[in-house]
Amino acid sequence: MPTNVTTEYLLAEREYHNAKTREEKIIALEKMISHCPKHKGTENLLKTLKERLAKLRKEQEATRKKGRSEGISKEGAAQVVVLGYTNTGKSLLIKNLTNADPKISEYPFTTTKPLPGMIDYDGAKIQIIDTPSLLHYSEDKNGERNRAILGIARNADILILIARTKQELLELLSLVESYGFKINKKKPDIVIRKNPKGVSIIGEELVKENDRILRILQDMGIKNIEIIVKEPCSIEDILLVLNQNIRFINAILLINNPGCEEINTEKGIISLDINNPNHLEVLKREIWERLGLVRIYTKEPGQEPKMDIPVVIKKGDTLREVAQQLHKDFVEKFRYARIWGKSSKFPGQKVGIDHIPMDKDIVEIHIK
């Protein structure tokens, strides 16, 4: 019996056959199922696709759990993971930025296990991790080595992808994304929650071809969830957010260019000399900006501010988060704060707990 599949299905099928990793195959299979016509002639096809998808998801979940166990616990205000092929300068970069002392050699694959170090950025501590070198597709046919290394990267706040040339960097970017990373891409504004009563969708009118959503979710075996859609999106966007192996993450794309005098930035790619101290200071500032963090310095009434140990919060956080870090009782006992810096209308302005401070503000908290 003819299946009469759509053009969208055929494109997804091509993606599946061209997929180099398990993660790419899962995404392609989900698209194939969502675009496959539903009639008598496609029953066996759908059954086969669902069986393939279930098998890959089971393998994926086992690997994901293994990746979590092999990760490195976060320390400091944030975690940065450095990725690259062999002999690209990963270990030298870590050594120059931190107090770590990784093995550095002209021989390939010197780094055999993840090695953490700590960047001190005006008192704020940022953990940065050197990882074993990734392999090209032809060198890691089953993908297990790369998958294990990238499992460490899944817990990072941002990544640094380092290479020797632009072509090598673009190849590295493609490799990392093939394992389920969405580099420097905006995550669709979709919230997923558990729902014991079945499947419900809030904001369904924002989804293109929304009349197909429930049927597709049913075909995928997805149930007992609530989907909250906050912006116009496609069904594929929802499937991406539902896929626990997809990681939307910010990354610095870095070319190690020994001997260059000027830093060059073009189309989101930074080219610099990782042995140049001035270049490293610029890189530190870029890491800080990408992390989206804010340093808050505190003081007691009548005392000078403590400028060596900042409280670090996310941009957009309020003084509530500052108070929580200082002492567990400060939120409940909070009366008001005085603030000096960019977020104040005048020095020493009196503000409430919902005030949003800015980087390098000085805060004096008064409690009951």
Brief overview:
The protein has 368 residues and is of the alpha/beta class. Helix content is 34%, strand content 25%. It has three domains: 1-69, Methane Monooxygenase Hydroxylase, Chain G, domain 1; 78-186 and 246-290, 3-Layer(aba) Sandwich (Rossmann fold); 293-367, Roll (Ubiquitin-like (UB roll)), CATH 3.10.20.30.
Any descriptors?
368 residues; alpha/beta; Methane Monooxygenase Hydroxylase, Chain G, domain 1; Rossmann fold; Ubiquitin-like (UB roll); 3 domains; eight-stranded mixed β-sheet; five-stranded mixed β-sheet; 11 helices; 16 strands
Overview of the molecule:
The structure is a single chain. The chain folds into three domains: 1-69, Methane Monooxygenase Hydroxylase, Chain G, domain 1, CATH 1.20.58; 78-186 and 246-290, P-loop containing nucleotide triphosphate hydrolases (Rossmann fold); 293-367, Beta-grasp domain (Ubiquitin-like (UB roll), Roll), CATH 3.10.20. It is built from eleven helices and 16 strands. It has helices at 7-18, 22-35, 43-69, 90-97, 144-153, 166-177, 213-219, 235-242, 277-291, 319-326, 330-333; strands at 78-83, 115-121, 124-130, 158-163, 181-183, 190-194, 199-202, 225-229, 247-256, 264-266, 269-272, 293-298, 306-314, 334-340, 349-351, 361-367. The strands form three sheets. Strands 1, 2, 3, 4, 5, 9, 10 and 11 form an eight-stranded mixed β-sheet that branches. A five-stranded mixed β-sheet has the order 13-12-16-14-15. α1 (7-18) packs antiparallel against α2 (22-35) and α3 (43-69) crosses α5 (144-153).
